[in-house]
Amino acid sequence: MNIALFLQMAAEACGDRRALTHEGTHHTYAELYGAAKRAAYRFSTAQCEYVTLIDESSPAVPIALMGAAMAGIPYVPINYRLSDEQIIPLLERIDPAYLILGPKETDHSPEHWVTQSTSEFMSDVFSGDEMEVTWNEDPSAVAVQLFTSGTTGTPKAAILRHEHLVSYILGSVEFMGAGEEEATLVSVPPYHIAGISAVMSSIYACRQIVQLPTFNPFEWLNLCAQEGVTSAFVVPTMLTRIIDELEASDIELSSLSSLASIAYGGGKMPVPVIEQALKLFPNVNFTNAYGLTETSSTITLLGPEDHRTAVDHVDHDDVAVHARLGSVGKPLPSLELEIRDEKGKPLGPWDAGEIYVRGPQVSGEYDGRSVLDDDGWFPTRDAGYLDDHGYLYLSGRADDVIVRGGENMSPGEIEDLLHKHPAITDAAAVGMPSEEWG
Fold it and tell me: Structure pTM?
């Protein structure tokens, strides 16, 4: 199955329904599907091996993603925040490509590449004759290639095939599961797996996508109110700034009455922040989603009921239940998850080690090189532990353990403790050499 089938199904089932809103402009699912087919035709005739977008969120994002899938060409969004010196080596690794550039980007593409501005690209694909394209139906074909963060070395190219992304969507989203008035606010960058999965899951559910090109808490709140947003995904820093903005501005909570659910992830959420959010938004369903690029997005969920139960136990003796606010929940039904020690031996509850995951949505592939073990398990390089009820708690990266006097200490646990102090907004724990403690 090709991920572009999600858009075809949505267009056939609810073509007149609003699919996308961007800076006040609206497009239906039928219009989005037509634009993606025109894009696919352009990609197919351009003799390119990749489709690359370097820009903020715009209608070009879902169109390029789905158009590339129809054309059987990998879609490679690149971080628009990188410097020219960082972008050029990445472009050299995807030669030749069809390059779509935002207004702030510099064109460093070779002469034989097809390069368009985002505005030119959208003008072309939203006009002209209807196009019919023959899809690549190979589920093992590469759908998306995402460059991992390169702050400490050369970025790795994580490979996601159609079968991985399709498995994730079919296992977590109901087709046409969204009501006609539902709208999700997408403000995460388009080059992150969270941005990719938000587009695909919304399309498959026939839910309207409301795009906020760059995050700003005031604009986020205003857009929620103006467009009747019902759901959103945020990272911890974003939620903190949204709370701060609500407390500092004159925005009325009543203007956000349509907001029914907020999912968060992309980093460890300080417990005091989510506690505050639950008090501010008592009628909103909160979900903590933990996932990785290499796993096609989410692998564990802490659902709304878990959040409410944890809050209800804050003043009771059941400390373990309240502590679940600090967990990332349980694995998705289609996945297996284990905690292993340094020798690869599975550990029991409460024993910390490296998180391993296995399932049909797990790629674990870089530049054509798989890092899955012989049994299909992916080493996440994240450290954590499970409690007696199967809830997963993160304690940092497996490589980040601080050794003090021969004892292993988790930076994440130290940071969690510091976050509980009312005078501390954020904290980071790092190891420093010591003659006494090592």
Answer: 0.90
